[in-house]
């Protein structure tokens, strides 16, 4: 871990990157490739995988995070009173879905809005295509996202992860999605010594937890890094405003600000540009309905839970 030649206690700060976040403890990889277990000094707000930090080394393999450097982006969700950081400085969100267990379209849309609000690139991956013909059910639902200009990629992480490789170059990607979609299986295929635990969905959810319990960052090569994150059951967007949410629906943007009323919620008000666009089939009813669901849950503070357990096919 520690390289010879550097004292195990430093008086000047070292620069590093958080590669794993376990609640109050973080693994930080320093520029010289040491890995230190660190805590955050004082009562600072939490760090996240991908954060660039300044640390002081306090022991052979220990350190204290003195400062989290400014972030280019922060992907997080806010469930009622809690905020849950997913990844810092990511440039791309990879939403992983699979035909089995079936996935929630609302959760995909919540991930999309969170990614759009941070101006992140998005890739949607339909995994486990070895199990079903991808032209069947799962794809019918997902083709809408291709029409919205999101890239949709089909893979079987179990058989061949190579089609994913070109999309990872020059990105810090973060894999997000429900439990059991195959995020850690993708990591294991990309990083042979990652040894991420993976498990059958019924086994993990019956035990009351997800297989992956903490986020972890991997370097694939000099230009590609990727974060595996724990499966999500809820994706609260309480930190976003109604306007942010509308903006997160990328095809709504040409119509935003064109309604008769400034505070139009696009739910039946006269002169609503978005409803007009829907009538002209320029915006899909499905997405308008999801938008309304999202803004309703903002005002009622009720965030639905998307457990894969009840949906196993
Ligand atoms: N048939 C098939 N099974 C797969 C594929 N990818 C993953 N699986 C299986 O799906 C199950 C769940 O995979 P994981 O990689 O643990 O899923 P995860 O998304 O990391 O789940 P959490 O860590 O709970 O969020 C495991 O039994 C995997 O072997 C695939 O391409 N084809
Ligand atoms: Mg996992
Ligand atoms: Zn409107």
TrEMBL record:
<feature type="domain" description="EngC GTPase">
    <location>
        <begin position="88"/>
        <end position="233"/>
    </location>
</feature>
<keyword id="KW-0963">Cytoplasm</keyword>
<feature type="binding site">
    <location>
        <position position="264"/>
    </location>
    <ligand>
        <name>Zn(2+)</name>
    </ligand>
</feature>
<dbReference type="InterPro" id="IPR012340">
    <property type="entry name" value="NA-bd_OB-fold"/>
</dbReference>
<dbReference type="GO" id="GO:0003924">
    <property type="term" value="F:GTPase activity"/>
</dbReference>
<keyword id="KW-0342">GTP-binding</keyword>
<dbReference type="GO" id="GO:0019843">
    <property type="term" value="F:rRNA binding"/>
</dbReference>
<feature type="domain" description="CP-type G">
    <location>
        <begin position="82"/>
        <end position="235"/>
    </location>
</feature>
<keyword id="KW-0690">Ribosome biogenesis</keyword>
<keyword id="KW-0547">Nucleotide-binding</keyword>
<comment type="function">
    <text>One of several proteins that assist in the late maturation steps of the functional core of the 30S ribosomal subunit. Helps release RbfA from mature subunits. May play a role in the assembly of ribosomal proteins into the subunit. Circularly permuted GTPase that catalyzes slow GTP hydrolysis, GTPase activity is stimulated by the 30S ribosomal subunit.</text>
</comment>
<dbReference type="Pfam" id="PF03193">
    <property type="entry name" value="RsgA_GTPase"/>
</dbReference>
<dbReference type="GO" id="GO:0005525">
    <property type="term" value="F:GTP binding"/>
</dbReference>
<feature type="binding site">
    <location>
        <begin position="177"/>
        <end position="185"/>
    </location>
    <ligand>
        <name>GTP</name>
    </ligand>
</feature>
<dbReference type="GO" id="GO:0005737">
    <property type="term" value="C:cytoplasm"/>
</dbReference>
<keyword id="KW-0378">Hydrolase</keyword>
<dbReference type="InterPro" id="IPR031944">
    <property type="entry name" value="RsgA_N"/>
</dbReference>
<keyword id="KW-0699">rRNA-binding</keyword>
<keyword id="KW-0694">RNA-binding</keyword>
<feature type="binding site">
    <location>
        <position position="266"/>
    </location>
    <ligand>
        <name>Zn(2+)</name>
    </ligand>
</feature>
<feature type="binding site">
    <location>
        <position position="272"/>
    </location>
    <ligand>
        <name>Zn(2+)</name>
    </ligand>
</feature>
<dbReference type="InterPro" id="IPR030378">
    <property type="entry name" value="G_CP_dom"/>
</dbReference>
<dbReference type="InterPro" id="IPR004881">
    <property type="entry name" value="Ribosome_biogen_GTPase_RsgA"/>
</dbReference>
<feature type="binding site">
    <location>
        <position position="259"/>
    </location>
    <ligand>
        <name>Zn(2+)</name>
    </ligand>
</feature>
<keyword id="KW-0862">Zinc</keyword>
<dbReference type="GO" id="GO:0042274">
    <property type="term" value="P:ribosomal small subunit biogenesis"/>
</dbReference>
<comment type="subunit">
    <text>Monomer. Associates with 30S ribosomal subunit, binds 16S rRNA.</text>
</comment>
<comment type="similarity">
    <text>Belongs to the TRAFAC class YlqF/YawG GTPase family. RsgA subfamily.</text>
</comment>
<dbReference type="InterPro" id="IPR010914">
    <property type="entry name" value="RsgA_GTPase_dom"/>
</dbReference>
<dbReference type="InterPro" id="IPR027417">
    <property type="entry name" value="P-loop_NTPase"/>
</dbReference>
<dbReference type="GO" id="GO:0046872">
    <property type="term" value="F:metal ion binding"/>
</dbReference>
<feature type="binding site">
    <location>
        <begin position="127"/>
        <end position="130"/>
    </location>
    <ligand>
        <name>GTP</name>
    </ligand>
</feature>
<protein>
    <recommendedName>
        <fullName>Small ribosomal subunit biogenesis GTPase RsgA</fullName>
        <ecNumber>3.6.1.-</ecNumber>
    </recommendedName>
</protein>
<keyword id="KW-0479">Metal-binding</keyword>
């Amino acid at each position: 871990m520690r390289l010879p030649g550097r004292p195990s206690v430093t008086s000047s700060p070292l620069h590093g990157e958080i590669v794993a976040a376990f609640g109050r403890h973080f693994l930080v990889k320093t520029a010289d490739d040491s890995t230190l277990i660190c805590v955050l000094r004082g009562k600072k707000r939490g760090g996240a995988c991908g954060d660039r930090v300044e640390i002081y080394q306090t022991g052979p393999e220990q350190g204290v995070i003195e400062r989290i450097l400014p972030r280019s982006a922060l992907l997080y969700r806010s469930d009622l009173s809690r905020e849950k950081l997913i990844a810092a400085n990511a440039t791309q969100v990879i939403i992983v879905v699979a035909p089995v267990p079936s996935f929630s379209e609302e959760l995909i849309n919540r991930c999309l809005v969170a990614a759009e609000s941070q101006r992140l690139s998005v890739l949607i991956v339909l995994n486990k295509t070895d199990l079903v013909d991808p032209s069947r059910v799962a794809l019918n639902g997902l083709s809408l996202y291709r029409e919205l200009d999101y890239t949709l990629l089909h893979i079987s992480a179990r058989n061949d992860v190579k089609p994913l490789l070109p999309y990872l170059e020059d990105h810090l990607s973060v894999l997000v999605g429900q439990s059991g979609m195959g995020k850690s299986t993708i990591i294991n295929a990309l990083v042979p010594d990652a040894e991420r635990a993976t498990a059958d969905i019924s086994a993990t959810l019956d035990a009351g937890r997800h297989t992956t319990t903490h986020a972890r960052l991997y370097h694939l090569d000099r230009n590609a890094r990727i974060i595996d994150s724990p499966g999500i059951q809820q994706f609260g967007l309480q930190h976003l405003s109604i306007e942010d949410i509308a903006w997160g629906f990328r095809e709504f943007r040409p119509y935003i600000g064109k309604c008769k009323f400034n505070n139009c919620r696009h739910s039946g008000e006269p002169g609503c540009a978005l409803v007009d666009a829907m009538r002209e089939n320029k915006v899909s009813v499905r997405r308008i309905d999801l938008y309304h669901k999202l803004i309703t849950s903002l005002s009622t503070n009720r965030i639905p839970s998307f457990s894969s357990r009840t949906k196993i096919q």
